[in-house]
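ugh ok fine here u go
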Amino acid sequence: MNLKNKIIFIDYEGTLSENPSGKGELGEVTLKELLFDNNFLECKPIKKTQKLLTPLDPKKIYVVGVIDTNFEINQKYKWLKTHYPFILKKNIVFISCNNKKVEVLNNFLLNNNWKKEDVVFIDDKESHLKFTRDEGYDCYNIKDL
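structure:
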């Protein structure tokens, strides 16, 4: 797979970073941890992803992450600046869990006159990948890269 000339949309948790508290799925993190702890700052980056993204054009890398609370937004921005300093802040999109990531991709395509064949979506959850594949995008599970 050659990502060099592609526009990359990549998930945050489980794809760029480990899940908060190293506990696996986000659902295992308590509300107190989400609202008051620094779980997102304490996550480790996924080395495989860093190696994959580092040689690519930062203007073509977009992060699409889900947020559950406003508290975590600043932590996630700070964490990304520390572990992926080449990713542009304007290319980071956080959405609520009520939205689908594929809607973000569709809006970017519409607003930038991009073609689906120029876009790659990378995530760790098959549910997100399925919706995006069904829309005709090239998708990969980070575990398969």
